Amino acid sequence: MRDWMLPLAVGAATGVLSGFGVGGGTLLLVYMTAFAGLDQRLAQGINLLYFLPAGLMALPAHIKNGCIEKPVLLPAIGGGLVCAALAAWLATGMEVELLRKCFGGFLVLVGVTELFGKDQEK
Questions:
Q1: What is the pLDDT along the chain (122 residues), one digit of tens a residue?
Q2: pTM of the model
Q3: Are 28 and 10 in contact (CB under 8 A)?
Q4: Could you count the other beta carbons within 10 Å of the beta carbon of residue 33?
Q5: Are 99 and 41 contacting, i.e. CB atoms less than 8 angstroms apart?
Q6: SS3 for 120?
Q7: Radius of gyration from C-alpha coordinates of the chain
Q8: Burial class of 38 by CB neighbour count within 10 A (0 to 12, 13 to 18, 19+)
């Protein structure tokens, strides 16, 4: 496989997942750390930069379809900004190996919850 084909395929898959709003960045982090061999912190920084244009591209469609809850928007943004700043500060002080284990544990927890959690559909 050519050097650019796998990153292109991963980029396409993460774009689709980001458009759905279900975690394209998580797939991107897994690819960059497990397959591209990037350091966890570097991959997280790239993922943050990736998220900005991906989110902006998906936002108009979600607004048009009424998928944005305006009453919770500002509190969610405020809480997210504060916690993102604190978590970024914490992550820069952690050992990379511990950071990788925490991320792996998070992925396992999300996977188990998705497999065995209650169905939330109404």
A1: 578 898 899 989 998 888 887 778 888 988 999 999 999 889 988 988 888 888 888 889 888 999 888 899 899 999 999 999 998 899 888 898 998 899 899 889 988 998 898 776 65
A2: 0.69
A3: yes
A4: 21
A5: yes
A6: coil
A7: 16
A8: middle
